Structures are given as C-alpha cells and as structure tokens.
Amino acid sequence: MGRPTPMDAALALAEEAAFAGEVPVGAVVVRNGEIIASARNRMRELADPTAHAELLALRAAIEALGAARLLECDLYVTLEPCTMCAGAISHARIRRLYYGAEDPKGGAVDNGVRFFAQPTCHHRPEVIGGVSEDRSAEMLRRFFAERR
C-alpha cells in the first residue's frame, strides 16, 4: 500500500475524536501536496461550540503560513461542513474542498443552505464530495449507535 492520502489522515483524526468522546470528524489542510495543518473535533474537550475540526485546521494552517488567506490550499474533511464551517472555508479562500460523508441534517454544502451556491457567497471552492464516504459514514454510524 502506498503513502496515506490526506483523507486517510483526516479519517485517523476522526477516529481519535471518537476515542475522546467527540463526534468523529477530522480535517487536514494541504498545500503543494503536503499536509500543513490538521485537527479533529474538540468541542467537548474545549467546551467550545466552534471547535469543529475544519475551523481548528484552518486556524492552524493560517498560523503555519502566516497568512490570512489559504489561496493555494485544499481542505479534506470527513463530514460535509456545516454552515459555520462553510463560511470560514469561503473566507479563508480554500481552493478545493474534499469531504467524505454527506450530512443531510447539518451539512451546508450539498445539503441544507448550500452555502457556496448563495449569491452572497464571495468565494466558492471547488467541491468534491464522497471521498472515502463509506468509511466516514460507518465511523459516524458506529459512534452514534454506541451512544444510544
């Protein structure tokens, strides 16, 4: 087997999140083929409703690059981003968004408000959904089944 993909790294972070009792979502920011930042959900750990994997990864990438925009960067995340995260992705000027499982209830990219399709959205990344979708969805199903 070859080198792990960025989505493999995001899935490993999602597993870490689940182990920590967080909703299993992981995210990585990639620039020129290299992961420059990564994060997992930490909302419970930090008692912060904004501590979604995407936001934490974007913040870490901005800090690593010393730039306010992530123009040449791609974001890989295991679950379709919510409205808050879609807004941050747009403001950060992410070039391409790859996500795993769709989120019909809370997603805002291909479901819900479809944030990037709104006329008020200033930047629309290229969106590729369904990357490692089965693995992402199964991890989420297992997490929530164990809590019911």
Enumerate the strands of the largest sheet in spatial order, edge to edge or round the barrel.
Answer: 2-1-3-4-5
State the share of residues found in helices, binned by percent: 25-40%
The helix/strand series, from N terminus to C terminus, equals: HEEHHEHEEH
Runs in which pLDDT lies below 50 for 5 or more consecutive residues are none
Beta-strand content bin: 15-25%
Q: What characterizes the major β-sheet?
A: 5 strands, mixed
Structural class of the secondary elements? alpha/beta
Shape, per Cα inertia axes: globular
Quickly count the helices: 5
Number of strands: 5
Distance between the termini: 36 Å
Averaged pLDDT, please?
96
Alpha-carbon Rg, integer: 14 Å
Provide a compact summary of the structure.
Helices cover 37% and strands 20% of the residues. The chain is an alpha/beta fold and 148 residues long.
Could you characterize what this model shows?
There is one protein chain. This protein is an alpha/beta fold. It has five helices and five strands; from the N terminus they run H-E-E-H-H-E-H-E-E-H. The protein has helices at residues 6-19, 43-46, 53-65, 83-92, 133-146, and strands spanning 26-31, 34-40, 73-79, 96-101, 126-128. A five-stranded mixed beta sheet has the order 2-1-3-4-5. Strand 3 (73-79), helix 4 (83-92) and strand 4 form a beta-alpha-beta unit. Helix 1 (6-19) packs parallel to helix 5 (133-146). The longest helix has 14 residues, at 6-19.
